[in-house]
Fold these 3 entries.
Entry 1:
Amino acid sequence: YPERTIIGNGISKWAGAGGWRLGSFAFPKELSWLRETMSSVASETYTSVSAPIQYAAVRAYQGGQTIERYLVHVRRILKTMSDRCHRILRDGGVRVVKPQGAYYMFPVFAGMKREFAKRGIATSEHLCDKLLDEAGVAMLPGNAFERPPDELSARMSLVDFDGASALAKSETLPPDQPLPPEFLKENCAHVLEGMEQIVGWLGGH
């Protein structure tokens, strides 16, 4: 259905560049009216993207071997990270869908609703506040993404590590092979510790 399909993209997702907020939409000519309307709304909502992000995006969109090599390594790192984090949470009794891309997960803690109720936790926002205060892990409550407040869900971002250092280490390893088990522990320890903190906190409740 190409004549009614809008394609959205952004360098934070496409290039694994967390926080580099520059996106784009490709509209078919049949939806030019909608493109113009969205452009008008956008112009009244924000002004421009910061200069460093614009320069980085220009270089990224030029493509070439350097960018392709970068994408191979960053995707391998994030896939390894998301697979490990998914396994930790799942084994800890948390319902969470295994990510297929990017660097987010959206766990749902509804299976623990009864235990949480005993501690006065009834909403996603309260759950996130408790996890931050007592386990030191920051997440956004699901209701920030239009989920029901009592769903006990949250969005977590798996980017609390030195990306440049991890990328440099990955580039020393064969690109067509999985990263070794110790890679995440050596290069992305904070993220793994955060997952373990969540599971440990849940086990204590």
Entry 2:
Amino acid sequence: MTTQPTFVESEGLRNLLTHLHSSGPEAWSRAPEATDLVTYAMDKYGALARKHGQEPADAAVAAFEVMLTRAARDALDPWAVITRAVQLTLTYDARANGLLCSTGRARRAESAGFHDAERFSERETPVYEYHPAFTVPAESESYDGDPLPESDAPTNALVALDRAVSVFMRQGWPEETARSGVEYICSRLMRTGSRLAAFEYLRRDRHARALFDLDQRCWLAMLRAVLGNQHPDRAHTSAGRGLLLLLVIGYDVEDVLEIASITRPITRGVRALEDGHTHG
């Protein structure tokens, strides 16, 4: 019968943590018991890590970081403290992966209401084939916008998203801000099924502005560029259709960059972005 290590019990763990702490930083790399403890933690929390889409080694790292603290050494039940800390770390790491942000930001209270980003590529059927948000409205005789490309086929929605990000970058937006913002807007668009509904929801979405570190001017500029001007009189113009819809129905990046009603809000947004960083 194999004898269990003493650190399996709370008292034994407390004694080992105290000994390692008093022996100095190098004790963790030299003491065989320390290696055994980390291996045990990896096995102990492996299932919990996989539940959150992570590896057992990630749980072991989280456990190790807690074991270094005084809170773990002085706790009545060190394993309870470590287990709770590992659980929280894995939860927020998974949340950060879903929100496309840092773990520190995912821990903040203002991030509690966010939903995970949803990419077009995660669906088996291309979103543009069934989603009403990508339905092109019927042309009217009073249409005063730019002519549609005659020969271009509709663009895959995922490609359209990448091209939309490219348009923002060509106008001076940082890639990370542009991609995160456009993906977030598209995620809401897929949920609402309407560009108008998505716009109305997102323009009041203070959580999104906090997540992407954008002020109101930048955020509204991005919304108007991506989703279009939602005034009924602009419905059949390029400004009304917005960047994403134009790209979906066949425009390419160079076409869009020549449309002033699309590039103006993007340019205003990047100026506001630069002003905010200058005065921040």
Entry 3:
Amino acid sequence: MQRDRTLELVRKRNEPWDIVVIGGGATGVGCALDAASRGLEVLLIEQHDLGKGTSSRSTKLLHGGVRYLAQGNITLVREALFERGVVFANAPGSVAIQPFIVPCYSVWQTIKYSAGLKLYDLLAGRRSLGRSRILKRNETIERLPNVNQKHLGAGVLYFDGIFDDSRLLIELAQTAAASGASILTYAKLVRIEKRLTSPESRIEFVDLESEDHIEVMARAVINATGAFSDQVRQLSDQDAGPLLKFSQGIHLVLDRRFLPTDDAMMIPVTPDGRVLFCIPWHERLLVGTTETPIDRPVAEPVAQDAEIGFVLEAAGAYLSERPTRDDILSVFAGIRPLIGSSQKTATSRLSREHRIEVDRSGMVTIAGGKWTTYRKMAENAVDRAIEVAGLRSVPSRTIDLPIVHRSSEITDGERLCADLPYTTGDVRNAVVNEFARSIEDVLARRTRILFIDARAALEIAPDVGAIVGELLGWTEEKKAKEVEEFTAVAAGYLPRHA
């Protein structure tokens, strides 16, 4: 298995790594890919699975950010639209063009949203995915069959990118590994030490599978741990002050009957000033998101009852058949790490731009940002790490570096669920070729069944555990424990009744 080979390599290595990246989300894996493709020797360590945190819990959009345009953040939108185009060029098999329709209930709304989306087209330039246009009332109803027709006047059509965040992340990791990066999951950081007498940092982590403590040396360290960046910064420098503030966003997954079309719907105004998306995804309907300020990040965030009610109410106002809690197939929450402000600013107004900080030991922290701009964030972070550590300067190569796109290499097997396309072969492929080490890794971030239908995931967990256990040599006691742990996690994806 990949992890066993990587762990053996790490244990035997005596030389310092050029860069050790902490964090296996989009930014961390992006950093590993960027650095490895420059010819640097890179180790990435991740406490959980790749994408366990925010990177698997997005709205599945590769976009400039229509809402940021309304806030006047032209620079962020232009950069994100450029980076969206880079992802489409480098990973064409992993992304898709998604038509969106904005329902308009007054002439003023039609004029306003049409003008704004024309500017969105203009900022995309030659990387535009399609020209926006106004739809007449009848065409809007035809393309959004369940839209609320009362007072509906028109619609505005525009185009953006859609993707499976976990799938693209695994493909980025495979590309990084193929470029020479060593990727080690379930490796918990416990210590970072920089001695005045040495230009290198000593990093200690625990292999959570063997419980062995392992030390490595690094010429440069990049902290790409997302919502947990401040905690890692304090390991490196106890005097480091907080850099981030946090908000939680949730998504509901519903049956496609609530929007039986290949078009997505963008709800332009919600009571908290956000936009809401209803997007076809894996033959279901993904609806979100929210903006709930929270004090501190947790590894397994859970949707609050009030958030679920908010999304149902906001989406229901635009639908003829309104969804209820009984219609929810799955609900998931993610945490946004936002660059903080000294002022009392609503999290919805905090910047989605990224920031790089270098502490007294020389550790580079990359924080903030969004999925769409992961590549540029990684490039900036690696550039800074090279500068701080005095490494051999080589320009980034990721702007036109193709991303690995493989269909399952193990194609045989029986269906896991009657109404879902995944097979036992997909489970084996996840473990053998895609870094998966647990039932949750397979059901949440390789097949997405937990995100699509939490009850179905619970039903098949023992069968999946049997396959994963066979491949990884689990005892019966270990299999039972894994099922128990997955059941506890999956409970947070089940819709609760107020």
